[in-house]
Every structure is written in structure tokens, then in C-alpha cells.
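All the exercises in this workshop are built on plain-text protein records. Sequence and backbone structure share a record, each on its own labelled line. The question running through the whole workshop is how a given chain folds. The record below serves as our worked example for the rest of this section.
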Amino acid sequence: MGALVGTLLWGWLSDLANGRRALVACVALALIIATLGVYQHASNQYVYLASLFALGFLVFGPQLLIGVAAVGFVPKKAIGAADGIKGTFAYLIGDSFAKLGLGMIADGTPIFGLTGWAGTFAALDAAAIGCICLMAIVAVFEERKIRRQKKTQTLQTA
């Protein structure tokens, strides 16, 4: 349920931010780190369920916005190929890490010195921080593109 609400709301928020989808995704990714901490230390059922809703809300927004931001950088005739390539690599890398990497860490196999559930949450936090760093690069290029378009639009109307 959180995923449905999050996808709609994060898309709407990125529209309010004048198409700054990568920046909005960075905000959601930062909130994911805090929510993972709440989830990890949940002491009762309601906190646990609320944090699961929040994680669904926060995860699927950036997933949508990453695709929309990526499509904004390619020519219209290459949108399908760009989205397909992005989706393929996201699925191969993300799904492999989620199933194999996190499973091995949680099971006690030391990967990068991480083991158990504490190591699993540390790996998730590190992944979110890595995503924020990569999305910040996209946000810079997106901001340049938005400013360039506004400048062009201003010159055309003058």
C-alpha cells in the first residue's frame, strides 16, 4: 500500500519541484536510511508495520523517479532503449544483491566484514548512501538542463 501512495506522491512532488526528479529521489533515499533505523529497532507491532509502510512509500518513489529522470536525458527516439537498458541493469544488479548478497550477509557469511542482521542493515544503509551519491550527479546534470531550458525559453519569449 505504501508503494502505491509513494509512487503517486513522489511523482507529484517532483512535478512541484519543476522536474527536479533526481533531487526529490535523493530526499527519499535519505529518508530511507532513517526509516531503516526505525524498522531495525522497532519494539512493537505498530512501529514495525508503520515503518514497513514508510519503506514501501520511500522505496518505490525513487524507483519511479530514476526511470523518469533517465528518460529525460535521451532523445525521444531512444527512450525505449534507454529505459530498457536501465531496467535490465537495475534488475540484474539489484536483484542479485538483494537475493544473494543480503542473504549471505544475514546468514553469517562475512562479506566486506559484515555479518548477521546488523550487517544486513549496514549494507542497506551503504547502498542507500551510494545511491544518493550517484543520484546527486544526475541531479546536477538535471539542474543544468532545467536552467538551460528556462534560459532558452526566456530568450524565445523576449
Summary: The chain is about 85% helix and 0% strand.
